[in-house]
Amino acid sequence: MKDFQFYNPVKVVFGRKSFEKLGGLIPTGHTVVLIYGGGSVRRTGVLDRVQSALGDHPVVEFGGILPNPAYEKLMECVALVRSTPSPFLLAVGGGSVIDGTKFIAAAAPYGPGDPWEILSVRGKIREALPLGSVLTIPATGSEMNNGAVITRRQTREKLVFQNDQVFPRFAVMDPTVTFTLPADQTANGIVDAWVHVLEQYLTYDVETPLQDRQAQAVLSTLLETGPRVLAAPEDYDARASVMWSATAALNRVLSCGVVTDWATHLIGHEISALTDLAHGRTLACVLGPLLRHQVASKEGKLAGYGAAVFGHGFEDPREAALAAIDATEAFFHSLGVSTRLGDYLSDQTLLDEIPQRFTARRTTLGERGDITPDDVAGILADAW
Fold it and tell me: Please, how many CA atoms are within 13 Å of residue 121, restricted to the half-sphere of its CB?
């Protein structure tokens, strides 16, 4: 097992009565900047519930943060926050809203310089405003981690930053708010959580049996409950399991002491930056071709994954590894998620720039750094 440090200060308030605790989670004396996405939180009554739960806290609103949160839109909120006395940021939404709120929290006090430096050159975050979250879409785990992914439309970049100062102070998680999620959003979230686990699990063995079994437990739970929530959207227990599984997939517990990958995500981010395709769908398309490309180096872990999660009993390790990849894609298909980019995009040449971007950044991918830009081109061709 590798040496590691683990830190997670997020207070989780989970369950049907979690909204009732919201007002008491925010210290007095703050103005709550209520940050949300499109109209669904208002249409479903979530925003009204949040505002009611905030009680006497003064509130200002900022809406319109869409999937693949845009730096340009977030900077509008930064301007609002900078003019707000003693702001406390409250993200109400899914991963895009929470990621965007983390950036706002770091960008508002950032300077001198352009806050985009936080992502583009890993500009130093000296302080961040306090923030909390009310989760409405289980997927990214952003409610309980210190990372965010932000898109800059002008340059068509989608980049990541991490900093302990942007951990949310709390995460309010009521599974009932997910009852009205469209099926495609539910499915995309399950795929996202699944791939988060695999990025931390399907690498190479460093003698971490506990972490391997924790990863297998999250995957087995998603395999069991994912189809249930699609078949019965108001199945509370299934919704609760999916919500907590997505959080557990990326609250940093699974990465303790292990080797991680993240190549599927990095390629997926580039696809989203160029095409605005939903994040979960980019992952579903890239994962299988990437795993087949890397099957020789991941064979042992893939075979164990297939046995533990899908119940496979193949004797030949290579056959077992390939069967595990096939079973993964079959699971995504069962959720209604295609694993072919050509089913979502009409112009394959849009992807030609992606290997060039990795070349320009001198980026190699994978847990061993052995996936080259030329390899990425082949993976994208196979994903089409």
Answer: 7
123 pLDDT more than 80: no
Domain ranges of the chain: 11-177, 183-383
**Residues 239-250 pLDDT 10s:** 999 999 999 999
Token reading at 207: 């003698």
Just give the CATH number of 183-383.
Answer: 1.20.1090.10
Name residues whose C-beta falls within 8 Å of residue 117's C-beta, 6 or more positions apart in sequence.
110, 123
Phi, psi of 224 (to 5 degrees): -80, -45
Looking up tokens 């997505």 gives 246
Does position 199 have pLDDT exceeding 80, yes or no? yes
Fold of 11-177: Rossmann fold (3.40.50)
**Tens of pLDDT along 143-183?**
999 999 999 999 999 999 999 999 999 999 999 999 999 99
Burial class (CB in 10 A: 0-12, 13-18, 19+), 328: buried
Distance CA 118, CA 104 (A): 11
- Token code pair at residue 31: 């103005």
- In this prediction, residues 308-337 reach a mean pLDDT of 97
What counts of helices (H) and strands (E) characterise the chain? Answer: 15, 8
- Quick check: do 11-177 and 183-383 share a fold? no
Res 360: pLDDT: 92
Q: Where are the beta strands (DSSP E) in the chain?
A: 11-14, 31-36, 59-62, 87-93, 131-135, 147-152, 157-162, 170-173
CA-nearest of 259, 243, 263, 239 to 251 is: 243
Query: Cα-flanking dihedrals φ and ψ of residue 337, to 5°?
Result: -110, 120
User: What DSSP string describes 178-192?
Assistant: GTT--HHHHHHHHHH
Token output for 113 = 């310089």
**338 burial class (0-12, 13-18, 19+ CB within 10 angstroms)?**
middle
Torsion region of 325: left, alpha or beta (phi above 0 gives left; psi -120 to 50 gives alpha): alpha
pTM: 0.96
Half-sphere exposure of 202 (CA within 13 A, CB side): 33
